Every structure is written in structure tokens, then in C-alpha cells.
Amino acid sequence: MDRLSTLLSQFGVRANLFHSGKLCGVASYGGADQHGHIHLLQAGNLTLQGPRGSDLLLTRPSLIFMPRPIRHDLVPVEPEGAQLLCASMTFDGGAGNPLSASLPDLLVLPLDELPQLADTLNWLFSEAAGGHCGRKAVLDRLFELLIILLLRHLLDHQGLSTGMMAGLADPRLARSLVQMHNAPQRAWSVAELASESNMSRAAYAAHFRSVIGQTPAEYLLSWRISLAQKRLREGRPITLIAEEVGYESPSALARAFRRKTGCSPRDWMKSLA
Asked: Which one of 75, 116, 231, 245 has the fewest beta carbons within 10 angstroms of its own beta carbon?
């Protein structure tokens, strides 16, 4: 069962390398830009200063992952600085897309605790140190691969406690979530979803809500509207969108859209302009 491919095909991630080398002074990020950030501390000691004055001293090679825009500073501890690779990142579908929204504001993980990422990290550091043609394009793609492998690591090690990613890491919920992701147009009942999870209807509904934070019906609505928003951004006609995400007519989709977002699809699109 592939828990990530449908998510990533709908809400993929793009990375853009912007720093490679020594950081010798304070670097500030997450101001007016609308990007998340991923920083790789390769060598040296570094203080990560968060948005509310919280400081975290890093003395081991580490991955700093911020999927959404958050104001933060990186401060090298020693005068000789710290060796870093830094990239900005955006998920398709905007800041509120379901994949980004299911991740914590900040993850800091020592690199030696990420064996699944070791080969990609070595490739990244080797490419950054070289001067080959296409270096930046390769590093951008490697950062995107690294993020996918990090998501896989979080699923395999049940690294999150609530939300969609926690549900996908839960053996009892994963299959039903994947079914909703793969076939949003289907009129899923709680009984059908519970059957996918080999649970009773009542036990499934209670467990789903405790892990995901929504009822199955609320989650399916959220998933459908997220897909509809993505397709609206792409310029697809609402008649086709309605059929693709499980509504019998554009007006039925518009009612569901208003129930979820508080505005019509037309007004929502105007708000993006």
C-alpha cells in the first residue's frame, strides 16, 4: 500500500537552494516570503532562534524542517561559522494544502538518526562541494527527494501524533485514508471505511476522530475541497471539477465549498487575485 504517492501527485513539493557553504553571521528567514525552509547543518555548532524567543543549540549535524513560513534566525556559535545547505520549499496547492497542514511547524532531527536519508544526504553534500554543470538544478531535485524521504521516515517511525500523516502511519487507519485519497469521487460511508480497516463502525469512527481530529465525513469533505481548490487554481472548469471530486453538479460542489471555506468558489478565486 503506497501511502504517499497520491498525496505527492496532487500536492507535490518544490525546493530551491539558496545557500551552500559557511554561515558566519546571523541569518534571518521567514519574513515576508511565503516559503517553508529546510536547513542542513553539515558541520559546526548553531543556535536556532524561533519566533517566540525560543533558542535551540545544535551541536550535531542536523536537519531543520519548517514546512510553512516561520520567522527564525540561524546564529553560528563559533567565529569560523557553520557549514550549511539551505533551501526554500513550497507545496503545491498553497500553504493550507492537506499535506503541509498535517506537518508540525518545526522538526529538528540529527542526521545520524535518519538512516533512510543517508545516501541522499551524502549525495547532496558531495554535489554541493563540487563544481559540476547543472549543480543547482541537481541540488534542488535532491532537496525535493530528501523531503519525500523525510515524509516516508515520519510514516515508518510514526513520528507524528495527530493529523493526516499520523493517520497514514496508523495501521488501522492507513488503508481507509488511502482509499479516500485515491477515490474522492466515491460516496464513502463510515461502514465501508470501517470495513477497509477491519474495525466496527463505532470503533473506527472513534479512533479516526482521536487520531485525525475530524470525523471521517469531515475529512472526506476537506480532502475533496482541497482537490477542488487545486484544480480551480489550475484553471479547470468547475463542471469537470465537481465530477472529479464526487459532486453531482457544480451547484452541489459550490454548497460544499461554502460549507467548508465560508465562501463560494468564485469568491475564493477572487480572493487569490
From this structure: 116
The DSSP line for 68-106 is S---EEEEESSTT-EEEEEEEEEETT-TT-HHHHTS-S-
DSSP 220-263: HHHHHHHHHHHHHHTT--HHHHHHHTT-SSHHHHHHHHHHHHSS
CB–CB of 117/150 below 8 Å? Answer: yes
Domain contains 163? no
Q: Which residues constitute the domain of residue 138?
A: 5-156
Q: Based on the domain organization, do 178 and 141 belong to the same domain?
A: no
Structural domain contains residue 265 = yes
Q: Distance between CA atoms of 46 and 220, rounded to whole angstroms?
A: 42
CATH number at residue 123: 2.60.120
In 3D space, the residue among 160, 179, 184, 196 whose CA is nearest the CA of residue 204 turns out to be 196
pLDDT in tens, 108-132: 999 999 999 999 999 999 999 998 9
